[in-house]
Amino acid sequence: MTVHRSPTLVEQQIVVVNGLRCTNALRTILDLAAVTRTGPEYKLLRRALRQATTKDHGLPARLANALSSRGGWPGARVLASALDEHLESTAMLRSDLEAACLDLCLAARVPLPETNAIVEGHEVDAVWRVARVVVELDTYRYHGDVRAFERDRARDADLSVAGYRLIRITARRLERERPKIVRQLRALLVAQV
Asked: Strand locations in the chain, DSSP E?
C-alpha cells in the first residue's frame, strides 16, 4: 500500500471508510483532475464524477465553486470540461428558464445552486443551502392561476420561517435585469462564498 500526503489537505476533506482515512468525494475529484491527461484517464474522471454525484447531488455545485475560487491550479481546465459535460448530460433542468439561470450563474461566476431540490418539504427551482437562499423561476404559464398563486405563497412562508431568503425571477427579469439579479444573488450568497 502506498500512503500519499498533501500539505494542502484539511480535516474537512477527510472521511473514514472501513477504518481508513480517505479524501472525500470533492477532494478526490479535484486530485484526480490534476493528474488526468489522456482519453482513458478522462473517461475515469467522468465515471468518478458520475458515481460521486449519484450519492451527493450537491457535489457539482461545490466543484464549480472550487473551480471559480481557485486560479490556474493543475487540472482546472480538464475538470471544467468534465463538469460541463456532466451537467449537460445529467442536469435536472425542466425548462429553458432554469438553464438560462444556470448560464447566468456560470457567466457571472456566481456559485452554482442545486436545482429542483427539496427544501423544507417543498420542491424549489434552485437552492444554495449554506447561504439559505432559494430562487424560484416564475412563468405566468405555471404560476398564473389562483391555486398556484396560493401554493407559492404558502411555500414562501414555510421557507421564510425556516430561515431561507427567496428571490423570484421571471424570464423577463432574467432577460432585462441580469446585472441587477447578479448583484442581488452575490449579496445574498456572501455567507457561502
From this structure: 14-17, 20-23, 114-119, 122-128, 133-138, 165-170
Burial class from Cβ neighbours inside 10 Å (0-12, 13-18, 19+) for residue 191 reads exposed
Task: Note whether 136 and 170 are within 8 A (CB).
Answer: no
Can you list the domains of the chain with their CATH numbers?
11-90 (no CATH), 96-191 (3.40.960.10)
* Ramachandran quadrant class, 43 (left: phi over 0; alpha: psi -120 to 50; beta: rest): alpha
Residues 100-135 pLDDT 10s: 888 888 778 788 788 888 899 998 989 998 899 999
Cα–Cα nearest to 66, from 38, 115, 17, 28: 28
| pLDDT tens-digit map of 149-174 | 888 889 999 999 999 999 999 989 99
pLDDT computed for residue 159 by the predictor: 96
pLDDT digits 0-9 by tens, 131-142: 999 999 987 665
Q: Which grid cell sits at 106?
A: 456560470
What's the CA gap between 152 and 69, in Å, rounded?
A: 34
For 14, the grid coordinates are 477527510
Q: What is the DSSP letter of 11?
A: G
